[in-house]
Amino acid sequence: MAIKLPKNVTIIEVGPRDGLQNEKGFVPTDAKVQFIHALRDAGIREIELTSFVSPKWVPQMADAAEIVNACTSAPGRSIVLAPNKKGIERVQETSCKAVAVFVGVSNTFNKKNINKTTAESMEELRPLIADLKANGYFVRACISTAWHCPYEGKIPEADTLRLCADFSEAGVNELSVADTIGMAVPTEAYSLFSKLKAALPGILLTGHFHDTRKLALANILASMQAGIDRFDASAGGFGGCPFAPGATGNVATEDVVYMLERMGIKTGISLERLMGAVELVRPHVSRPIESTYYKMHASAGA
Ligand code: HMG
Ligand code: MG
Known about the structure:
Blueprint: E1 10-13, H1 15-21, H2 29-41, E2 46-51, H3 64-71, E3 77-81, H4 85-92, E4 98-104, H5 107-114, H6 118-134, E5 138-144, E6 148-149, E7 153-154, H7 157-170, E8 174-179, H8 186-199, E9 204-209, H9 216-225, E10 230-233, H10 253-262, H11 271-281, H12 292-299
Parallel strand pairs: 1-2, 1-10, 2-3, 3-4, 4-5, 5-8, 8-9, 9-10
Antiparallel strand pairs: 6-7
Helix pairs in contact: 2-3, 2-11, 7-8, 8-9
Bound molecules: 3-hydroxy-3-methylglutaryl-coenzyme A and magnesium ion (MG).
Residues 18, 21, 51-54, 57-58, 83-84, 86-87, 90, 102, 113-115, 142, 144, 178, 180, 208, 210, 241, 243 line the site of 3-hydroxy-3-methylglutaryl-coenzyme A.
């Protein structure tokens, strides 16, 4: 049986947001801006720039408006996260026209992350999404703990399907379905994405895999078998949610690009330039870079 493969894959770069939100310290605004510009130069066309969240909860994202002002004029889609009405109002004061809301399937995780139950978040977001859509915004919904939760354990697939259907009815353009703590296995990725593809044909579906157990590339391959051709990834493999204990970084963009391009799948991203972007931000991050491609590249002295 031939492997089912897309010809092209879109990478949504989440390093400046998912990566840097989980840093111990505050990465200087200038360094973030340079990182974002270098990622664009590498061929990234969709990127999460930052989050309009409470600076008391996540001080690393306190410079969200400055980042947007410095970065939204570049070509491609610049996305920012916002968890609630206040966050969306702050986005609307900027030139950014793409918003990602985020909700956990798990109530316990959602409470810890945004201080509301899943149903309370959905109730608040439904009219806000309608308003954003009516005003020409692109809306993405990040579905956290889609397979496993650090507090509630295995999430019933039916619960994730229901929340995704609710967001689809609310009118979002895209669902980014997230393995927040990197615990899903390829059979689970294939099963959920096959059902989402069949149930929600009109929506962009994206896989967001944290690489805690080094299963992200296998999950991406399984998701492609289910017809998915969009994946979130983080240059350098940085990332993690401060309210999801045990999660490590996102799958590294360079490891995804390397695998896909070697398979003949086009990403439009230059690995050489991507490494340049990682080198720019490296002095500002506390953790070593764990991506396989980066380590091979560094040891080759390139
Ligand atoms: P709260 O304390 O319940 O907020 O936090 P509140 O509504 O009670 O308001 C308290 C104060 O915060 C008020 O100010 C508000 O104005 C202010 P005060 O009157 O005390 O001066 N406030 C805000 N300020 C700035 N921006 C806002 C905002 N909202 C209220 N948007 C809140 C609730 C949602 C704000 C908080 O829990 C929060 O900021 N959480 C964000 C957590 C976060 O950023 N997590 C990481 C991103 S999600 C993720 O990483 C997962 C993902 O990658 C997918 C995956 O892997 O699973 C996407
Ligand atoms: Mg994440």
